[in-house]
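Interim report, section 4.2 (structural modelling).
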Amino acid sequence: MLDIHSISKTFNPGTPNEVRSLHSVGLKIEEGSFVVVIGTNGSGKTTLLNAIAGTLIVDSGTIRLCGTDVTHWPEHRRATLIGRVFQNPFSGTASLMTVAENLALATKRGQPRGLGWALPRSVTTQFHDRVRELNMGLEDRLDNPIGSLSGGQRQALTLLMATWRIPKLLLLDEHTAALDPKSADQVIRMSDNIISRDKLTTLMVTHSMQQATNLGDRLIMMHRGLVIHDFQGPEKRRLRVNELLAHFEEVRRSEQLDHSAAEFLKNNYI
Amino acid sequence: MTLLIGALTIGLILSLLALGVFISFRIFNFPDITADGSFPLGAAISATLLVLGVNPILATLAGFCGGVLAGLLTGLLHMKFNIHGLLAGILVMTGLYSINLHVMGKSNVPLLRETTLGTYAERVGETIFGVADDINIGGWDVNIQDASILGCTFGFIALMCLGLHAFFRTNMGTAMRATGDNQQMMRAQGVNVGVMITIGLALSNGLIALSGALLAQYQGFADVQMGIGMIVLGLASVIIGEALIGSQHVGLTIMGAVMGSVLFRLLVAIALRWGLNPNDLKLITAIFVFLALVLPTLLNKLRASKARTAHA
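Predicted structure of the assembly:
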């Protein structure tokens, strides 16, 4: 389904601010699997997601999606295959436009947009039904500007929009990080329902250990632009929050070791 | 009365300019100065073709197409070559000055006895009211020719507004509005943002050139200088329209732009009648737009500080 072969990305190369965000990362994801990506700040999780979505073009390596090489496709072309929910609830919707108009934009994801009506009656009744399934009472507010809704409501609608046309790959970029705990919980349950209902191939970045252990059938841990752990199958199912924290601690300690070892060598030999 | 009818007609003709500026400036938040070049371009093309004896409808349409091309060019410079939007507009506007001179062959093309859209409008009036000089409307004696031109302009502008409103409710029009609102979202929805902005600028400049073509036929000449300050004039109309309407609804904002344009023209007519020096017109327009841009934030600040002192 998704086949990433040794992709690298360096920001500001050749300057003092050089950041090697992805370091020859390889990753294969089977169709229908739900992969959770976790990692420290600056580990390259979001860069990985952006590289797959086409928001940035990688320096080297290839990305194949559904058997097609999409490495050099621009973002809008990849959107025919990819549905996406951003961290910021304001990023996924056009705030001045109504809920119905936003949904109408999503029904045409990756399709040519001609001069047909955006909101024919048949479509609005469909919107009404699908929005009612969210249980947020938004079905009566289809004609309100989406900017008048709360972050949780907007994120739920963005999720609905990203999956309205079944995407080959769903990318969730810490999509509950900016929400209050109650809305975050609501949106995460909604995501899980949709993913299992439509058997969506999903890549979800998260900071929440709870989400990382409870959701998905595979967990990838990133650090400094590398995939350092890959838990699959039974190993992933057994994984608990404290074990995951232990892995993080391990990473931290080995890093300190590097540091103190370097210090030790410097003091003794230079 | 003639003065009033003249002001209304020009206001309606220039409302197409306001609609063009509305698309570039309000929908895309793109200050597109191409307007100052595409307005006289539309006038130059249609006037030159009219002098050559081309059918007025075709000549006007050609003017519109000229504007579309100018907008496409600005869009290409901006999106393909990554030139800053403001500069892209300035480059095309500056280039168009020479092109307009080449199109006309001189700096001014008078339309004296040519058949124009105005002639068509007068014929429509004659078939309705018969051949008379004046008719009585509400106690005023009105010149039939002036009245029929005003009526036809009104009908045409109304049609354009309905068309534009319909366009903004199609899939493409909705995507265009959303592109101005949130580009990141639209890329994720599979829309080529550059292409969308270029199409929008083409439409915007097409309307502006159409406005120029109509104005040339109404006032009876095309002049290479007639585009100066048109972007500011359009902005003034859009801003007045927003103040009148006070809504984000597409249909209402379109109506607002037209009403703003007409109202502004009426104010100008009154000011000129009171003895305003015509040379000061552009300065006053610029100051007006400056105040309209600055006053809302200034008033908000004032209100906020008042509220604070009230609390203290």
